[in-house]
Amino acid sequence: MVLLLQVIPNQRCFVKITKQYSHVIRTRLLHRAIVYEKEFKLRSRPPTDRTRDFIGPPDTASNLRPIIFRSDNVPPVEKRYHEKYENVMKWNQDFWANHNKNFTKKKEEYIEQTLKSKSKVEGENPTLTPGEMSVFYKQFLDENYRLHTQYNIEWYKKNISLLFPALQVAINRFVTKLKG
Amino acid sequence: MGSVLLYVTLRLKKGGSLTASGVSGRFIRSHSNIPWLLPGDRRNVVHNRNTRYLATKPVSPPKVDVDLENGQNDHPIPETFKTHSRTLHKDGGSHSRSDVPQTDLLKNVSHNNNVTLHFKNSRTLAHISSSHIDNISLFVPHRNQLINFTRPDLAERLKGLEKDKTIPANVIDSIDEVHWKEQRLELNKLPGYYLMLSKIRLTGLVVLTTMAGYAMSPGAFDPSVFLLCSVGTALTSCAANSINQFFEVPYDSQMNRTKNRVLVRGYLSPLHAVGFATVCGVTGVSILSLGVNNLTAVLGGVNLLLYTLAYTPMKRYSTANTWVGAVVGAIPPMMGWTAVTGSLDPGALLLGAILFSWQFPHFNALSWNLRPDYSRAGYRMMSVVNPDLCKRVAFRYCLVTTGLCLTAPLIDLTTWTFAVDSLPLNLYLSYLGWRFYQQGDSNSSRKLFRFTLVHIPALLLLMLISKKTYGSHQSQQIIPDVVS
């Protein structure tokens, strides 16, 4: 598999920061009040082979691994299963991407706010202790209680509903193997 | 934490004011506080007129000039730099537009983990973004001087704002993790996948407690029943763990601790895992039922359901999940006992109670350092929702474990030696529990967690060597009569 490294076309970036395994390397340059923001990611190109199933690296937003199913010469039973699976995958992707984004945003807001109010009391350079962070973790769980429980129920339903079609596909494959 | 070295050439203008004629920056991964010097190569220096050029060639091996370094740490920002900054500000000829922030050199640490350098003469802002900067050095060739800006506030602030390493997608351990892979069942790796799917180490611990339960129960030791009981329990545990992972795929994907599980990585299909679990579960419970006895089989089956259908979903609903999980951990030793006697005697209940109370220091300490993960993945764990209760309960059950071990001789489970020799072990557990309760930091929780892993096998071993057998129990009662 070919690794695609998107290198910044503009070599005149001002500060270059490299780290051996950094996933996303970001450089910024502000010149004459114009911000150029370039980002390059280390990633592998999604496969173009349509005769096999592939599983990808974790999505940067949702942490879930996407699956690309084969589309050449697929029997209808399998196709239906793939469609169902893709729907669930998309639903999961949307939920977790959104949820994680929200978490990060809320966390940053909390840190900023707490640091601000702390610096008024303690003077300059306040720091946050793990104990103060845990206030946020609890708060986040409490705020999202309904969301989490609803997602949990939905996920269980969807996950179990995929089992029977998967079984059909497995039987179908087995039968075709016997015949062929 | 690393350092950043900025190479600045300062030149004296006519009239004595300083201007920055160039800068180049290079991020250096270093764990020492000694900054590395860039050689004074012209190509690494960015010049006045077109200040956007960066040397793309790698810089030759760094030299450390210790003489310059000595005694110059914690150097305050020298007046010259401030002057320089102001001078340039007044220098109208090359002035920037008003929307460029007029920051001082090395002033700004914005919330994106950036250090921003503003070079007014060239109208350039350089953002150095990294979560690894705690030390910035400026080398001024003109004066042959190295100036360190050790900024404790910088390091501490950045710590709080570091890129969230608890998010799996941010942590790329190897190039393997950015590949697309074909999803195909590899038969030669299947046994390994099955072991991972059944969380073999956890299953091993569960079977160990069952064996201890069997060995502690009064009655003859039957190797075949012992073996069947162990295998049946192991298979039931494998089934429970597989089903658990089948339900948890998106949740497991969210945490570094669990992101490499078989189903998350797609080595096995969900159907395959469920199939494996069904086979294991049915075989396990059948072995227990046919080869051991019905009570043990019922306990195994109930435990399987309790773990998969109550404990697993409950993690999203209530902090009571820890107590349910503790019951799940308490049943296996009882199964070992009932395999011999066929009934739940006080001894079995005591064994179960010890395992039940051991779970709290064990799990609460483990979950303490996973609070960010649990919060983001939506787990209502006690450590997140009620940290004080978490610490209190852990300590409380350390004491309960100590107390329960002392009662073992009272119900004739063990001799009095157990009460004595288990005491140091339990007291140390309680001490660590108390430390965790008092300090509540990651260090104390880690210590407590590690000790619980040693504690329970050691405790079971001590229990075994001071077991009170049926025969000697009666004869011991007779001897005092004879003497009196």
UniProtKB/TrEMBL annotation, chain A:
Arranged from A to Z, the UniProt key words for this protein are:
Membrane, Mitochondrion, Mitochondrion inner membrane, Transit peptide
GO CC term, one of those recorded: mitochondrial inner membrane
Please give the biological process terms from Gene Ontology that the record holds. Answer: intrinsic apoptotic signaling pathway
UniProt signal peptide = none
Q: Which Pfam families match?
A: COA8 (PF10231)
**Topologically, how does it sit relative to the membrane?**
Peripheral membrane protein
Q: Which residues form a coiled coil?
A: none
Report the locations given in the UniProt record: Mitochondrion inner membrane
The family classification in the record reads: Belongs to the COA8 family.
Per its record, how is this protein called by name? Apoptogenic protein 1, mitochondrial
Task: Give the originating organism.
Answer: Patella caerulea
Taxon lineage: Eukaryota, Metazoa, Spiralia, Lophotrochozoa, Mollusca
Automatic annotation (TrEMBL), chain B:
Q: Which keywords does this chain's UniProt record carry?
A: Heme biosynthesis, Membrane, Mitochondrion, Transferase, Transit peptide, Transmembrane, Transmembrane helix
Could you tell me the superkingdom of the organism this chain comes from?
Eukaryota
The EC designation for this entry is 2.5.1.141
Molecular-function annotations in GO = protoheme IX farnesyltransferase activity
Catalysed reaction equations from the record: heme b + (2E,6E)-farnesyl diphosphate + H2O = Fe(II)-heme o + diphosphate
UniProt subcellular location:
Mitochondrion membrane
Q: Does the keyword NAD apply?
A: no
| PROSITE patterns hit by this protein | UBIA
For bias kind Basic and acidic residues, which ranges apply? Answer: 88-98
Gene Ontology terms: biological process? heme A biosynthetic process
Membrane spanning stretches = 193-213, 225-247, 267-288, 294-311, 323-342, 348-368, 389-410, 448-465
The UniProt entry's GO CC annotations, sorted and at most eight, read: mitochondrial membrane
Q: Where is this region: Disordered?
A: 70-101
Keyword Membrane included in the entry's annotation = yes
| InterPro entries cross-referenced by the UniProt entry | Protohaem_IX_farnesylTrfase, UbiA_prenyltransferase, UbiA_prenylTrfase_CS, UbiA_sf
Topology with respect to the bilayer: Multi-pass membrane protein
Which family, according to the similarity comment? Belongs to the UbiA prenyltransferase family.
Supply the PANTHER family for this chain.
PROTOHEME IX FARNESYLTRANSFERASE, MITOCHONDRIAL
Question: What name does the UniProt record give this protein?
Answer: Protoheme IX farnesyltransferase, mitochondrial
The species this protein belongs to is: Patella caerulea
